[in-house]
Structure formats: C-alpha cells, structure tokens
Design goal:
Layout: H1 7-10, H2 17-69, H3 76-87, E1 105-110, E2 116-120, H4 125-133, E3 143-145, E4 154-160, E5 166-172, H5 174-222, H6 240-290, H7 294-324, E6 332-336, H8 337-354, E7 358-363, E8 368-372, H9 373-390, E9 396-404, E10 407-414, H10 421-425, H11 443-453, E11 457-462, E12 468-475
Parallel strand pairs: 7-9
Antiparallel strand pairs: 1-2, 1-5, 3-4, 4-5, 6-8, 9-10, 10-12, 11-12
C-alpha cells in the first residue's frame, strides 16, 4: 500500500478573493462605461450630422436664390461660382488651422437636359454628377453620396428650378469623421485610465477589508489547537467585518465556558470514580499480601486486573469524549517520533516474542513533531497492544516512520487475518470491536481522537497480500527540515 498523504499537502492554495472581486467589478464598470460611450458617440454623431444637414440646407437655399435671380449671361457662372466658393469658408467642424482652399465642398449645377452646366470644387464634376444620378436625392433631404476619387462620401442636398435645372451642394463628411475619431481616441484613453484606476481602488479597498477577514480566519484556526483564551482581532470600524469579529468572540466565550465546564465535569467524574477504585484496589492488594492460600489468591488477582482494565477504560473514555468535542487538553513539546518508536518497540518486543511475533522498525532518521508526549505515547501503546492481542502466533509487524513534505507518517503493517469488513467500516467509532476481541472498543477511537487533536489523521485498511495496515499522520514541527531536503 502507498503512503498516506496528509490533508495539508493535498489541499489547493487559497485564491485571493480580492482579485476576483476586483476583476468582476472592473469588468462590470468597463462594460457599463463602454455602453455609455457608444450611446454618447451615437448622440454626438447624430448631432454633428444634424448640424451638417442644417448648414447644407441653409447654404443651398442661399445659392438657389443667387442662381435663380442672377441673369443667365456671361457673368453668371463667374458670379455664382464666387458665391459657392465663399460658402466653403463657413464649413462646420473644420479645424482652425485649415487652409482656405479645400476639397471638402462642391457646388454643381445641372441643366434641364441633365448635363453639367456649372462645377465648383476639386476633382471631376462629371464623376460627381454620375454619383448623384446613381443616388436618389430627395429635395430637402441630404443624402450620403460616394464620389469616385474621394475616400469619404459627401453629404449632398439639391434644389430644383422652374426651367428644369437643379443645383447640388455637397459637403465632405471628412471633418465629421475626424471629430468623431478624436472623440473616440480621447474616450478610449480616459476609459482605460478610469478602468485601471477603478481596478486599483477596488482591489486596494477589497484587499484591506479581506486582510482583516484573513486575520480573523488565521486566529480562529489557531483557537482550539493551542489556547481557547485567544480571540480574533477586532477593529474600531462599526462595519460588517467588525460585527463578524465581535460575534465570533462572543461565540468563543460561550465555547470556552462550555469546555471549561466539560473539563470540570470530566475531572470531577474521573476523581469521583478513580478514588473508590484506587481504594478498592489497595484493599485487594492488602488482602492478596495476607493470603497464603493460592486458591483464594487467584480471584483477588483477577479482580485487581479487572479494576485496572476498568480504570484504563474510564480514562480512555473521558479522553475520547473530550477529543470528540475538540476539548482535549494538550501540553505540546518537541518529540522525536523515531526515538519514541524505538523505545516502544523495544518495550513490546519481549511480550511479542513470547507469542512468536516479530517486530521490525524502518525509519529514515529523526522525525520531530510538536505534540503531547503522554498522548502520543498512549496512542502508540494502543496500536501495539492491538497487534499483540489480535495477531496470531508467528506473525510479523512492520513499523515504518517517514517525513513526507510537512507531515510525519507512521505506518503499521502485519500479515495477520486483517480487519473484518463490518469492523473496518466503523473502525474509529466508539464501542466497535471484532467478535473475538475482549476489549471495550475504544482503542482505535482513542488513536483517531489523538491524531485529530494534533491536526493529523488516521486511516486503515487490509493489504492485498493479506493482513492489515494502519497509517497515522501528524504535522511536523514547523522548524523541522526533513532529511530528504537537507543539503539541497
């Protein structure tokens, strides 16, 4: 079977909620402002076009009056052309530094026969007339017309005369597009700055708020494993986080009082029961020392053994109950598990040898943990007691100890009959034991309770090749460096 991984090494790293909140808030702000700009851009474009159409219609009316009331003589084209060129200086949206001559405006007069009679502007008048004929321009309704030779279309309006001739005034939308382009560029620049600034503000604010939540989490995780008197930090701000800290501290006060009462009850119960049991044991030992008849001594010895079993059962039951309530009192010290396992295997080896059970210890050097030495000693004793009581003669027990990442892994394997399926499913519950067991069913529950009280875990199963395995994981001492990492 493979080595059991610690829950600490298997868990994924915490992802910062500040990043997620900032990203979603920034995304919502960016999308909202982008939609607002699109509406603003549409409004500005419509307003510019409305101003352009107003200018074209007004100028076209003026040019129409001039063309209609100017005599059709040799000076007609010259006079009307001059008036058309003057209109070019009043073009809306023109940049201030633009030169006097421009290709942004054209004036075209079409005769009754549909041919070009007057052209004022750059480029070819015939090309403009062909583009106008291909477009449907209604009087009083300016229309976009794409003239060959120009990259951008012209906004063209027309007016007709009684003789069948028509005049057209066209204004390039180039300046309109330039204004909109400048507007878009400035908005995108401002939009990016606002998005970055908004992200920074939301991230810094959220991180400051969540940093206090993280401190509360770290403090709460330490409470119960080290000292129930510790409390989570509070702030002077009367906000939701501050109320959370105050609520947690109030709850911890109640938990501490409950645990204190539990300790008082269990302590009183242990004292009230152990005192008479100790007195009874003392009287039995006194009777045993005064008895010379072996036949009468045997029941006394049996009674003393039953009292010892009852005392162990009482102590273990109280410890398991406190551990299940996360109230087991720990006195943590630095422990070398390797040295402890060597001592325990040496202690149990004579008893196991009498049954022909062979014990092997495999380790990779010192493995140090910070734990309660008395509870760890009793936990290991329970594991070895189980092996001694339940293994048949001439079996083999292999004890392995290894540091893996930030976890110490202690594993016991044997080649015995293994666990019954029904027992294996509830192995670490109280009062669960095999049919042939004479114990109280608290040994493995106590092992699980001690492991959990130290922030570790215990698992068990049956080997494919026969026999059982039990693996206990405990957190390594924080400053401990496994031998596999030394020298790197």
């Amino acid at each position: 079977m493979g080595w059991v991984m610690s829950s600490k090494t298997a868990k994924t790293p915490i992802r910062s909620a500040a990043w997620r909140i900032s990203l979603w808030a920034t995304l919502a702000f960016a999308v909202g402002t982008l939609l607002a700009f699109m509406l603003l851009n549409r409004f500005v474009a419509n307003d510019i076009q409305r101003r352009t159409d107003t200018w074209i219609t007004g100028e076209l009316g003026t040019l129409g009056d001039v063309a209609e009331h100017t005599p059709k003589d040799a000076l007609y084209n010259l006079f009307v052309g001059e008036v058309a060129e003057l209109a070019e200086h009043e073009v809306p949206n023109r940049p201030e530094d633009a030169s006097g001559s421009s290709d942004s405006v054209f004036f075209l007069q079409e005769g009754a026969d549909g041919k070009l009679s007057l052209w004022v502007g750059s480029g070819s008048g015939d090309a403009a007339l062909r583009a106008i004929h291909s477009s449907k321009i209604l009087p009083g309704h300016p229309t976009d017309v794409q003239v060959q030779g120009f990259e951008v279309p012209f906004r063209v309006a027309s007016v007709g005369f009684k003789d069948g001739s028509r005049i057209y005034l066209g204004l390039s939308v180039r300046d309109e597009l330039r204004v909109l382009k400048n507007l878009r560029f400035r908005f995108i620049l401002i939009w990016l700055l606002l998005v970055l600034l908004g992200f920074a503000v939301v991230f810094i604010t959220t991180r400051r708020m969540l940093s206090h939540v993280r401190k509360i989490t770290e403090s709460a995780s330490r409470i119960g494993h080290s000292d129930l008197t510790e409390r989570v930090p509070t702030t002077e701000r009367n906000d939701e986080v501050s109320q959370l800290a105050l609520t947690l501290n109030g709850m911890l006060d109640r938990i501490e009082n409950s645990v204190h009462q539990l300790h008082t009850i269990t302590g009183s119960l242990a004292h009230d029961l152990q005192s008479p049991l100790t007195a009874i044991r003392g009287k039995l030992e006194m009777s045993l020392s005064e008895t010379t008849d072996g036949e009468h001594a045997e029941p006394i010895v049996s009674a003393i053994e039953e009292l010892d079993r009852l005392t162990d059962f009482l102590n273990m039951s109280l410890d398991v109950a406190e551990a299940k309530a996360d109230a087991l009192r720990l006195t943590r010290t630095e422990i070398d598990l390797t040295e402890l396992m060597r001592t325990m295997t040496d202690l149990y080896e004579p008893s196991m040898s009498e049954k022909g059970i062979k014990v092997q210890l495999r380790d990779d050097g010192p493995v140090r943990v910070e734990a309660d030495a008395s509870l760890i000693h009793r936990m290991v004793a329970n594991l070895l007691d189980n092996e001694l009581k339940h293994l048949p003669d001439h079996s083999t027990v292999t004890v392995s100890l290894r540091a893996r990442d930030d976890t110490a892994v202690m594993r016991l394997e044997d080649n015995g009959p293994g666990f019954d399926d029904e027992v294996l499913r509830h192995l670490f519950e109280r009062r669960v034991k095999g049919r042939a067991s004479r114990g109280h069913g608290l040994g493995m529950a106590f092992v699980d309770a001690v492991a959990r009280a130290h922030g570790g875990s215990v698992t068990a199963g049956n080997r494919n090749s026969g026999g059982a395995w039990i693996a206990v994981t405990l957190p390594l001492e924080p400053a401990y460096e496994p031998a596999s990492l030394r020298g790197l």
